[in-house]
Amino acid sequence: MVKWRGLIFGLLAVAAGTAVAQQAARLSPTVATEQAQPTPATSAAPGSPAGSAAHELNKTDLDAWLDGFMPYAIARGDIAGAVVVVVKDGQVLTQRGFGYSDIEKRNPVSPEMTLFRPGSVSKLFTWTAVMQLVEQGKIDLDKDVNAYLDFKIPPRDGEPVTMRHILTHTAGFEETVRHLIHDNPDKLVPLDRYVKVSLPTRIFDAGTTPAYSNYATALAGYIVQRQSGLSFDEYVERHIFQPLRMQHSSFRQPLPKHFQPLMSQGYPAASQKAEKFEIVDPAPAGSLSASGADMGKFMIAHLNGGAGLLKPETAKMMHDYRLDVIPGLHRMALGFYEQNINGHRGLAHGGDTSLFHSDLTLFPDDGIGLFVSVNSSGGQGAPRALRERLFDEFGNRYFPDQPVTSRVDAETSKKHVEQLAGSYFNSRGIRSKFLHILDLISPIAIGRDEDGKLSAPMVTNTAGKPRRWVEIEPYVWKDLDSDEKLAAKVEDGRVTRWSFDTVSPFMVFDRAPWYKDPAWLAPALYAALGLLLLAALSWPVGAITRRRFKVAGVYEGRRLRMQRIWHGSQWLALATVAGWAVFIMVGFSSLSLLGGPLDPLLIAIQVLTPIAFLGLLVLAGWNLRQAFLEKRRWFHKLWAIALLLSAAGLVWVAFAFHLIGFGTNY
């Protein structure tokens, strides 16, 4: 699945020196399949810069370029293997395997036979199945989906969810991670159960906010299942795989036995051991296993007006719909999202499991499709870097265009940057449950650099370095070194949200409300925890000091007991905070741990949190009262006030970010 907590940072040098490429090729074998030579593309794309004609897109040029790019890229990125498929004009131009599907056995990647896990690219098959049923009149894109379900999705502000909302990721669901991905087939959650037990809260009004949702895609697959009378797996096999003769593809988990020997191993990195086959609980959102050759057949069908799958008018409806949320950026179609380059329209979908990373892009006006998948997470963000550079360099090589030269004047641009500056929450996030705390501890900030120009730390280039933004239209910025754009939405003279091309079709960043703004609340929280830690440590330190110097204690009797309870509440609050930190760190070290193994810890923390934090607040109030009743010195009074404010801050964070609450569906 596509996993958007933030961008993956990485460094991958993709150089084309002959000696380096040859050395990498010796380390990572390539497997190519010869195809009939299609009619060559024109030598220059429309709008190409004068004196800078496009390379001719033919098999000879493409293979030579891939041979210089891919072997070095996967070797440098600590990636075991990859597959690349390019189609044009209804034919496979080239399909290539690079590296190994099994390092230990030294099995090279075969583009025809080796199965990869394309993650969320699976969604395109689910959307295609939905549109087939739309053709048949079994699904209405604008009807309340509750009409197709055996359970109810609650309305929000009186508005229901429709299939159009689901196809455009605007149903308003918050993110959910509990039942997402693991490696235990015995714990696979069946689709009919998954959509009921994992129902997320709707946090946005339908149709207003792109918020990528694996759950919504699984819901669409369940509707396909109910409306067709077939299991989702069987439906896709009968109505997509069989018509296209995709003989090396399956949504089934675990894989059928005859496919298992063909499945590529998945690696954290080529230098590490392979891990088990991944199980995706929201299966229609990401459980596909397929060969590169089969993905080529799927691309050809969509480029050819849906031939074999959809009527031309249905395919056109699917491809040409545009949801324009922030003008100037890429938009969402029905299932596909835009990824344009150099003035050429691209329809795409990316996908990531924990181990496999993929991209599929169609250029419908050019009759060209590009698919890439790698079987390793590699090092230093290598999959992101490889996919990004492959797409950019492919576009620049075969679709060059004139650079954008328009600019907003410097003073106006500085004002716009100031308007944009601030803290934001990702629309693909969790807002109604305890993992909302991630928005506080890992904030998304945007603002200006020392020269007054736009600085967006999370939107880095391939090397993980800051991009060089220039405002080309009001509130639209472009990276000087790529086709990437960033834009903001302005309402009543105030910037309310922004996004950037790579994610804008399915994800935006909304300004954080002042009362949850990490810019002040995060430092306040850390200061509160620091004061609380000092206060807690003063108890044992004071006791040791008094014992060492044989000094009698200040309190006795009931007063002493209350003082001990007060100090004990401090340690209990700190232990609760530590428990939340352990849960988050351990849980996100492996998503499979979020499916149940950590539930005892979570339940314990949820029980402790209101007791510890509210108890701390009450006792901090008592401590302040005692400071005045006992006529302590001014320092002790100020210290008591600081501790009361610290306790109040902890309670506020606990309520605002839903740490006080119960439940294991998150």
Overall shape: globular
Number of beta strands: 21
Which regions are unreliable across 5 or more consecutive residues at pLDDT < 50? 1-51
Instruction: Give the % helix.
Output: 25-40%
CATH class of the largest domain: Alpha Beta
Name given to the CATH architecture of the largest domain: 3-Layer(aba) Sandwich
Write down the CATH topology of the largest domain.
Beta-lactamase
Overall pLDDT confidence: 91
- Let me know the largest β-sheet: 8 strands, antiparallel
The end-to-end distance, rounded to whole angstroms, is 17 Å
Which structural class best describes the helix and strand composition?
A: alpha+beta
State Rg.
28 Å
Domain count: the total is: 3
Number of helices: 16
Account of the 3D structure:
The protein has 666 residues and is an alpha+beta fold. Helix 1 packs across helix 2, helix 3 (123-135) packs parallel to helix 6 and helix 13 (518-549) packs across helix 14. It has helices at residues 18-27, 59-76, 123-135, 163-167, 191-197, 214-228, 232-244, 292-303, 312-320, 382-398, 410-420, 438-441, 518-549, 557-587, 599-629, 634-656; strands spanning 30-33, 81-88, 91-102, 107-108, 115-116, 181-182, 249-250, 279-280, 289-291, 337-338, 347-352, 357-363, 368-374, 422-426, 444-448, 454-455, 469-473, 476-479, 485-491, 494-500, 509-511. The two termini are 17 Å apart. The protein folds into 3 domains: 18-398, Beta-lactamase; 410-512; 518-656, no CATH class.
